[in-house]
Amino acid sequence: MSNFPSRETVERLRKLYPVGCKVRLCKMDDAFAPPVGTIGEVVGVDDIGSLLVKWSNGSSLNVIFNEDIVVKI
């Protein structure tokens, strides 16, 4: 059994988080994560459902599906 999202889920994420939309970081369990509250711009969604984000602090860490938490703003 895979922890990866289905193709349908990935397509839903791409519609929910289109390129250019803004998100605010709520939780990311990574030593190099931007601070909670950091704003980012979505630059894409990859095939495993990760949001590709350009953060306002210069970071480009991905938001991992079912692991990290962001809210669309």
Topology, pairings included?
Blueprint: H1 7-16, E1 22-27, E2 39-45, E3 51-55, E4 69-72
Antiparallel strand pairs: 1-2, 1-4, 2-3
CATH topology: SH3 type barrels
SS summary, helix count? 1
CATH class value? Mainly Beta
Q: Output the strand order for the largest sheet.
A: 3-2-1-4
Helical proportion? 10-25%
Order of helices and strands: HEEEE
Largest sheet: 4 strands, antiparallel
Unreliable stretches covering 5 or more consecutive residues: none
The SS-based structural class is alpha+beta
N-to-C span: 33 Å
The number of strands is: 4
How much of the sequence lies in strands comes to 25-35%
If you compute it from the alpha carbons, what radius of gyration comes out, rounded to the nearest whole angstrom?
12 Å
CATH architecture: Roll
Shape: globular
How would you sum up this structure, described in words?
This protein is an alpha+beta fold. It has a single domain, classed as Roll (SH3 type barrels), CATH 2.30.30. Helices cover 14% and strands 30% of the residues. Strands 3-2-1-4 form a 4-stranded antiparallel β-sheet. It is globular. It starts with 6 loop residues before the first helix and ends with a strand. The model has no long low-confidence stretch (mean pLDDT 95).
Provide a quick synopsis of the model.
14% of the residues lie in helices and 30% in strands. It is an alpha+beta fold and 73 residues long.
